[in-house]
Design goal:
2 domains; 27% strand; two-stranded antiparallel sheet; 155 residues; 3 helices; 5-stranded antiparallel beta sheet; alpha+beta; 32% helix
Length: 155
């Protein structure tokens, strides 16, 4: 998208509408209810990832569950207890993986969720401050020009 600034030539600058995948991140969270654990419930952030594919791969290696890493859970266990595995086609937001379907294993469950978020950093904040300062300077310049014109016209 092209932007024209007062007194400047046309320049190619990124706008908010020019978003791409590098401006988002995916957060994977984990929750487990296990009647055999001292606290019964566990919650954790597995990590923040640039792509949903990286998030899905890392989720399988996460060892903080009562069952260890989900990559080590056998196909037979997944079939016996019921599971949902969306790692091959991860959603933007939603369930990435679950083990223990409702009605199995005394209500225990393990779930990994994925959520897409905008990736904000210092550069975004700095750009906003620069824009605000630039607008303030333009307003001051316009005010000085009006004052000068008025003063010039009255003498």
């Amino acid at each position: 998208m092209y932007h024209i600034h007062h007194g400047q030539k046309m320049s190619k600058k990124r706008s908010k509408d020019d978003a791409d995948d590098t401006e988002v991140c995916y957060v994977v969270t984990y929750e487990e209810w296990n009647h055999g654990l001292p606290t019964e419930t566990q919650h954790a952030v597995v990590g923040v990832f640039r792509t949903k594919e990286a998030a899905a791969a890392a989720m399988g290696e996460y060892k903080g569950t009562g069952w260890g890493a989900m990559n080590s859970v056998t196909k037979e266990d997944r079939e016996e207890f019921g599971s949902t595995d969306n790692r091959d086609n991860p959603p933007e937001n939603g369930l990435l993986f679950s083990l223990f379907a409702e009605g199995t294993s005394e209500g225990d469950f393990i779930r990994f969720h994925i959520e897409k978020f905008p990736l904000l950093d210092c550069a975004v904040e700095a750009d906003a401050k620069k824009k605000a300062k630039h607008e303030e300077e333009e307003e001051e310049e316009e005010h000085r020009a009006e004052v000068h014109f008025t003063a010039w016209g009255t003498t």
